[in-house]
Design brief:
With 299 residues, the protein is of the alpha+beta class. Helix content is 22%, strand content 18%. Strand 4 and strand 5 form a beta hairpin. It is globular and about 45 Å long. It binds a DNA duplex (13 and 13 nucleotides) through strand 3, strand 4 and helix 7.
DNA sequence: ATCGGGATTGCCT
DNA sequence: GGCAATCCCGATG
């Protein structure tokens, strides 16, 4: 991890102004009921939608918009690293986390992708929608995973882990709700270090499926001010997790995480030894869209 | 109508 | 590190 990045990590969470709006100022995490938050989908047409738009337009100037998501899947998966995912709950509470781990699912040839072979079903529809569209799907009957569609037919990026930046007490409540009573308190780094944990901690419900991360009032992505994008040496590429049954495609090193970050869900030491090997990261769409010169870099 | 599998997690040994 | 929990979705008949 570069010095620049570490520095920014240290400054995380400072000077976050809460909106001076009715019901939104000084949220009281202890009073938030996870059950209530989870109960139902928030209505984008509600009055508070306008309030949050007001907030976004006047206080936040770092929201990432349409163009950010419009890049090839692997590039986007890496570009997500270091960006901040924000969730504005119904009561105005804002939860923030820095994304530290992602996976790319290309669709088409990528057999491990839900959209492999262009398979378009009710479930995978979001993967084929415009870049920036959120794809939320249930897994193992009990959990959810959140993806964001990228450029490329059926391609999407799975968000796997985050470093909690703001609203940790609420996140802890949301995460603790389903755990055994009397279990030890979760450490901060355990709040979002896994794709389904991330959804729980940020209160991402299934009905966020097909929403637009570039324009939704309740969830969005931010670039931290004065922060440089993660450099190649800061990014570890490793095989994706949980797809062993897909043979060949399970070996593609399309999981990306910030080297040395304590919130990464699974560290892969072997992959880290092959640090910064650009050959591992080639995206078919990247190859297609450039001259091929960088293919021999660091051979 | 039924069936099999799954981009995970938490608790247990 | 093993493994149960738990149910939606899509494929099949």
């Amino acid at each position: 991890m570069s010095k620049v990045f570490r520095c920014n990590v240290m400054m995380a969470g400072r000077k976050r102004k809460m909106p001076a709006l009715k019901g939104a100022a000084t949220p009281q995490p202890a009073e938030v009921s996870p059950a209530k938050l989870n109960k139902k989908c928030e209505n984008p047409q509600s009055a508070e939608t306008e309030l949050s738009h007001h907030f976004i337009n006047n206080d936040l100037q770092h929201r990432l918009e349409e163009d950010f998501f419009k890049q090839p899947c692997i590039r986007l998966a890496k570009a997500f690293l270091g960006k901040v995912l924000v969730r504005r709950c119904a009561d105005g509470t804002e939860l923030r986390g820095r994304i530290v781990e992602t996976e790319a699912y290309l669709g088409g040839e990528d057999k491990a992708s839900h959209s492999a072979g262009g398979k378009r079903t009710e479930r995978t529809t979001a993967m084929f929608m415009k870049p920036g569209t959120i794809y939320v799907y249930p897994i193992y009957g009990i959990y959810l995973c959140m993806n964001v569609s990228s450029e490329g037919e059926g391609a999407a990026v799975l968000l796997r882990s985050m470093e909690p930046l703001q609203g940790q007490p609420v996140m802890r409540q949301l995460r603790t709700a389903r755990r055994k009573e009397g279990a030890r308190q979760l450490k901060d780094k355990e709040l979002c270090n896994g794709p389904s944990k991330l959804c729980q901690a940020l209160n991402i419900p299934r009905c966020f499926d097909r929403r637009d991360l570039a324009s939704d009032p309740d969830v969005w992505l931010e670039r931290e001010p004065d922060t440089n994008p993660a450099e190649p040496d800061d990014i570890v590429s490793a095989p994706r997790i949980g797809i062993e049954s897909h043979g060949e495609w399970a070996k593609k090193p399309w999981r990306f995480y910030l080297r040395g970050h304590h919130c990464v869900s699974v560290v892969n030491k072997e992959a880290e030894r092959q640090s910064g090997n650009v050959m591992n990261n080639l995206d078919p769409s990247d190859v297609q869209s450039d001259t091929g010169q960088h293919k021999v870099k660091r051979a």
